Amino acid sequence: MTSATSIAAIAVGSLGSSVQTVRIGAAGKPSRTGADALRGAVDFVVVGSDTRQGQTEATEGDPGTLNNDVTMLVHISADHQQMTAVSIPRDTVMELPACVDTDSGQTRPAERAMFNEALARGGNQGGLRCVVAAVQSLTGVEAQFAGILKFDGVAAMSTAVGGVDVCVATPIHDPYVGLDLEPGIHPIEGQTASAFLRSRHGVGDGGDLGRISNQQVFLSALARKVLAPGGALSNPVTLYKLAQAALSNMILSDNLTSPDTMVSLALTLKGMDLSKVLFVQYPTLPNPADINRLIVDEQPAQALNVALQTDAKTNLNDSALGGGATKQSSDSTAPSKSTSAPSSTAPATHESPSDGPATAAPSTAATSTALPSTITGQTAAESTCSKGSG
User: Fold this and answer.
1) What integer best gives the mean pLDDT of the chain?
2) 147-166 per-position pLDDT tens digit
3) Which residue of 231, 263, 331, 371 shows the fewest CB atoms closer than 10 Å?
4) Handedness of CA 244, 248, 249, 251 (dihedral sign)
């Protein structure tokens, strides 16, 4: 583990001067010692921007506007025993808080608009701050860290880990992103991985909610590969490549550019039980005023918000999968790579590469609270398949 964290720190250090950063005005940083895991709960906003300006030649068509096409709030519990990644549907209509547009220097007043407009409201330097503020307004959670993943970032990171095996239950044909996948197991990386995550017209009902559950199929498979024994967190070469891919394709909050902080953030996931890695969709309902828009489903949203704010352990019901995913059948031809979760008896403490074990916050309860049945998602321990729209 010492060599893995050291080589990741070298990757961060060698690229540090070229990394784009922004200040998000976050709460205080969790404490750490050297390159141990961060202590305490961690909240991190991850934004996938749908602008494609200046990206690879494989990208065709209109580069698009600077919108937060994909937004996730990642909450890691104080004892580092559970991670909950909440995907916020881009088409959700909400009250976006006032935000400074750094391009014009003017403050944009609060307005009711689609959630995915938050990034554009802040201009080139203030957009990430505006998304973090919108996430806090929606969930009541203030994130310490944030980052924008550029269009080529997913392609580079999937290649860095050697590709990700995804299961496709029914054909995915999406000419908008150039994706054609027949039923079966597909090892995907590079631009194919990027197209898989961007696809809307090829999965579920062709909307954003189907795309979110399709993304959760990929992210769960990625988590199984990264968190498995011998995965990226313990493999120096893979960890270096992953750090390089991330830093070369992200705009980060300025408190994430330290090599120690980047490594410490990754170490909060080390040894985590895959059944405690949750990917959930923020609960919404169709907007009665516009069938192409969504509104917050207030009751389950409040339950999820309280769980995140109070660092409560949660679980999903057995039929929580969204419309773009289905359970993998027992006769699947899937490779038998790291499909089972690590033992739930893994210690709560996190091994330090230099100063002995980092003492995580003690677990206060062995039980977890079931999220409302209308909240969809899955855990990383579940082997699922994408439901193509044919």
Assistant:
1) 82
2) 998 867 888 889 999 999 99
3) 331
4) positive
Cα-to-chain-centroid distance, residue 259: 21
Ordered structural domains, the chain, with CATH: 2-358+367-387 (3.40.630.190)
pLDDT tens-digit readout, 198-237: 999 999 989 999 999 999 999 999 999 988 887 777 777 8
pLDDT for position 8: 55
CA 33 to chain centre: 26
Beta bridge partner(s), residue 185: 167
Considering only CA atoms, which of 6, 298, 32, 282 is closest in space to residue 145? 32
Contacts of residue 15, defined as CB under 8 A and 6 or more positions apart, other chains included, come to: 243, 244, 247, 248
pLDDT at 20 exceeding the cut of 70: yes
CB 234 within 8 A of CB 303: no
Quote the CA–CA distance of 323 and 213 in Å, as a whole number: 7
Residue with tokens 């005005």: 25
Spatial CA neighbour of 215 closest among 307, 88, 301, 59: 88
Nearest to 165 by CA among 11, 334, 310: 334
Q: Which of 280, 47, 292, 64 is nearest to 177 (CA)?
A: 64
Phi-psi region of 202 (alpha: psi -120 to 50; beta: other; left: phi over 0): alpha
Q: How far apart are the first and last CA of the chain?
A: 45
